[in-house]
Specification:
Order of helices and strands: HEEEEEEEEEEE
CATH architecture: Sandwich
Number of domains: 1
Number of helices: 1
Helix content: 10-25%
Largest sheet: 11 strands, antiparallel
CATH topology: lipopolysaccharide transport protein A fold
Distance between the termini: 58 Å
CATH superfamily: Lipopolysaccharide (LPS) transport protein A like domain
Length: 159
Amino acid sequence: MKYRRILFSVLLVFLLVTSTAFAAKPVITADHTYFDVNTGLYVLKGNVYIEVRNRVITAGEAKVNLATLEVSGAGGITVNQDDIDFTGDSVYVYGTKNRASIDGGVNFSRTGLTINADRVDFSWDTRIASFNGNVHVSQGENERTADSINYNVDTNSFM
């Protein structure tokens, strides 16, 4: 009887661990893909689409490390999740750290709010976007500019 309980517990833990591991498996498509054995990266070109944990990244080209879920992309990138939409020239996603850095003509939009800047760092853990360089905020009829600004996407407020 004791042996069956231990076996059942081990099987249950195994099922939980494997189902969690498969839940984070990304969906990746592009016009041209190849695996660079020298760098260990997938190299993607043309209509790049990467989806991990309902976060979607699109780009003209990108490199992906599946072990760390790190993504570097360029060429009209977008980073979307739920009602969070970022666009810019390039992106680096630190997958295991749940962070993204977007550079070049950054645009963030959601209902009733638009923020433009040179760069943004976003954390999915804290849900804070830190905009830097030529920041312009348009919220309804109100507009303002700043060198930098922090925005909490959950509370829809500036810090």
